Amino acid sequence: MVIAAVVTCSMALTGPGLAATDGTSTPSVPAPKVDWRPCVQGRQFDCATAKVPLDYRNPRGRAIELALVKRKATGPGRRIGTLFFNPGGPGGPGTVQMPQNYEFFPREVRERFDIVSWDPRGVGNSTAVNCFARPEQADAWIASKPAGFPVGEQERKTWIAAYAELGRRCQQRDPELLRHVSTADTARDLDQLRQAVGDAQLTYLGISYGSFLGATYANLFPGKVRAMTIDSNVDPQAWTNHASNDDPRLPIFLRMGADLGAAAILDQFLALCGSTTTARCAFSAGSPKATRDKFDQLMQRLREHPVGAWTYGRTVGDAVSGLNIVHPGWTELAGRLQDLWQGRVPQQPSPLPEPPVPNPYTGDEQGGAVLCSDSPNPRDPGVYHALEEASAIRAGDTGRFWTWAAEPCATWPAVAANRYRGPWNKPTAHPVLVVGTTYDPATPYSGAQAMVKELANARLLTNNGYGHSALLNPSSCVNEYESRYFIDGTLPPAGATCRPDTPPFAAAPKPRGGVATGGGGTAGIVS
Known about the structure:
Layout: E1 37-38, E2 46-53, E3 63-71, E4 81-86, H1 94-100, H2 107-112, E5 113-118, H3 135-143, H4 153-173, H5 175-178, H6 183-196, E6 202-207, H7 209-220, E7 225-231, H8 236-240, H9 252-256, H10 258-274, H11 288-304, H12 312-322, H13 329-341, H14 364-374, H15 384-395, H16 397-404, E8 432-439, H17 445-454, E9 458-466, H18 476-488, E10 497-498
Parallel strand pairs: 4-5, 4-6, 6-7, 7-8, 8-9, 9-10
Antiparallel strand pairs: 1-2, 2-3, 3-5
Helix pairs in contact: 6-7, 10-11, 10-16, 11-12, 12-13, 15-16
């Protein structure tokens, strides 16, 4: 899950009106009317817009719009209902990423369910956080700050100032919206959408940040859970800092252990690369140790001598992002590293296919608005350099990246008005399936273990593999378990494990898209 750039304030207690966990503590809101029509740019998909309250405590106040996309069940006469999908982030536009990744959903799930996704409030084609009046302003802001993370005192000052400016711009443009893009707000939107499609209970797949959204829904609306798979999990106690009102010592991604998870999978990438030929992994130096040494030498060299715009910070950020999807991501990442080793500017990856909806603006401030208003982070920008150095001791280069990914929250101007911070153990109508991958660069396997312990009734399925999400790193084993669970509620046996279909650096089909992982200070990374 990585996240788009942002900041948080010390979390205040959720107000008394939202303290209940059954979803009935806010005034009742009629389900929105949804008029599905073929999407203009891709007629296999249907598009719609739903109106929901900005503030569920004041349902007659300002309304906002949610952009929706649907692919109808492909099995005639066999439809069970609707599967709602959240691709992560926060800040992942579902109207873009579900169509791009539709073919990765298990075949039986595509046959039996309409698959619906949406751009969460604040994001993409929905009522969105957009802190720039014109695209050129956004481009100029991006160009003003270091890519990846800052290196050296001057870059740190520039980075901190850039994100402080972003927060000021956002506060000036729509301060009310900034306070109403919490995970709890989006969980309530999801329940409105469930009612709008006519399902008595929710069927849901959430990835990365979408796991935290799923856990929030399950505890706000425990009686409405029909089937819920959450993949690449965020530890809810890490996200909320154990619901403490004290200022947090560590930022969110270090509390999650994302730095350690990324370090572990980077080490695996280099070891596996070094164990194969340069025909399969261009960066191979002939052995795991030699390839690890080569990477360290490249990082040291880039600190002093960037290759074009490829600085040390940009390259580490690109490496963390490039580890998300094994095929073709690892092969392409190895090629970029080898280009840099030889002093060449790497080629950009091929663009993703066009979605069936207008390609929306998805700036750092969208994921940031959710992350920073919902999850607490240290409020003093001056502490992040020391936190970076401490994380680098335990996690190396990836620790620097993940520390600075949360620094934008230090100067973010808003705290969410309506948050859910637990408890996480409300008994749900049906059990939850938790999928965790053992080597994940954004949401470590420990997050899945923690999620299973927190939820009242959950089963862990372990994917002994690599990358961010089992959905985009295909495993027929995971798909079969998920299909059975979604269709008839059958859980995998306790202790079940799976493996990916294709090991790293072997021939594999090219994925069509990527699940959002946000981007911390590096737009274009996770989810």
